[in-house]
Specification:
single chain, 137 residues, mainly beta, Immunoglobulin-like, three-stranded antiparallel sheet, 9 strands, globular, SLAP domain-containing protein
Length: 137
């Protein structure tokens, strides 16, 4: 059975409203078919350096845990790639049958500046393992 989990840092810092909304998103999207790794967009935001912050709910519906320390994240809007970045050495392990929120930070030169916070519901976020061969999960 799929479970919802927050990393320790998230448990200390998440607002009650965000936690409730993420649990709602989890309940609406947890019944993914097959054994997959899926990223469900939750929120887009921008920080003071104009980096794009993309918060997703990652579902690992596989029977084994996955290591998400070296991944490439791609954001598409209307089938057009609008952001991509390689994230290396992140402290992210996702146990089997577990869903967890995570925020990926895209520097200014790694995303299309036409993206806005209102695009959250019109984007698709994909995750692939970053290796020399760039194999997907």
């Amino acid at each position: 059975m799929q479970s919802f989990q927050l990393q320790e840092a998230w448990q200390r810092q998440i607002s009650p409203d965000d936690k409730e909304q993420l649990i709602d998103l989890f309940n609406k999207t947890r019944n993914q078919m097959g054994e997959t790794i899926t990223c469900i967009p939750y929120r887009l935001a921008f920080n003071h350096r104009q980096d794009l912050l993309c918060t997703v709910l990652i579902h690992n519906t596989k029977d084994e845990s996955i290591d998400l320390r070296n991944v490439m994240i791609t954001i598409k809007k209307e089938s057009k790639e609008v952001a991509t970045n390689i994230f290396e050495d992140l402290p992210l392990q996702l146990p089997s049958k577990t869903s967890m929120p995570w925020t990926y930070i895209f520097p200014l030169n790694h995303y299309d500046t036409s993206l806005t916070i209102d695009d959250t519901n019109s984007i698709a976020v994909s995750l692939s393992e970053h290796t020399k061969n760039n194999n997907s999960f």
